[in-house]
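SAMPLE LOG
Freezer: B-3
Tube label: C17
Construct: single chain, 84 aa
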Amino acid sequence: MCLAVPGKIESIQGDEPLSRKGKVNFGGILKEVSLAYVPEAKIGDYVIVHAGFAISQVDEDEAMKVFEYLKEIGELHELEDNAA
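STRUCTURE (predicted):
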């Protein structure tokens, strides 16, 4: 199943809006994602990521709620499996 998952931007590379990428932390798992759809995002912001693209910003409280829901339904393993 493909889910959109919240993560925290740890670093950003690039200045061009369409080619900006960021290292995003998903509860300890770091992945590189495109930030093209969220040009206003900055380090420390939480974003919703789907298929390698940050598609929107979300506040920290909402991101933590989503993480708890994903833990409850056992979907965080998908992130861990893909990181290996």
